[in-house]
Amino acid sequence: MRSEAEPALKHIAIIMDGNGRWARKRGLARIKGHTAAEKSIHDAVEVCGEAGIKYLTLYAFSTENWSRPRAEVNFIMKLLSRFIKGNIDELHRKNVRLRTTGRLYDIPDGPRGDLEKAIQRTSANTGLNLVLALSYGGRAEIRDAVTIIAEKVVSGELSPSDISEETISNNLYNPDIPDPDVIIRTSGEQRLSNFLLWQSAYSEFVFTPVLWPDFHAEELRNSLEEFRARKRRFGGLE
Ligand code: IPE
Ligand code: IPE
Ligand code: MG
User: Fold this and answer.
1) What global pTM score does this model have?
2) What number does CATH give the domain 11-137+179-228?
């Protein structure tokens, strides 16, 4: 049962890491780990649904991931199409609204078209917002916001002295989405890898050694328990 003392939980963000190592441990090619990741995504959507979470952001592909071998990048892009086509009916039925964050224009036409169709189709849904971070980089997002703000200054719409933290938040990719309450990273790595740099100022971090393809419903519930035991102070006093 939820107690009064539990921190509010609107937005969960996950750095889905460890696919390659999961495959290697089984003597398989790295790409098999990406394929095996689908079940964990499915479970995350399920757990968020049952817990009434409003936003789930999944770090699927970073601006730095373009530096991987072309064959792996191509495979991930094909998998993205397959994931959308294979899951959109069910997501829609579950009232999930699919969204993205990142430089979507970097994504090849095929998967981008599938994504855009799915985003359009689910745009009026009122349940979980499932946000896929694709060609996403926290620094790229801040840089892009700075460009928009600078253009407003040049056009005279905004004065430099009026630029506030809110101005920056309002010019990020999805200004309506609240900052993540918790950022979970699988696979034992303890770093942000350029994820949600601005939005993570007061996020709680949960790190787990479990590799992403093994991170099923029970593992996510455990991570959320860990989050619920935290005391968030935001610089103030309890
Ligand atoms: C995460 O798994 C998926 C992406 C970054 C696309 P990795 O592919 O990074 O797996 P490891 O970290 O090499 O095990
Ligand atoms: C972070 O994982 C990006 C995603 C999970 C999409 P990486 O595997 O790319 O991060 P590093 O290279 O270990 O920092
Ligand atoms: Mg990795």
Assistant:
1) 0.97
2) 3.40.1180.10
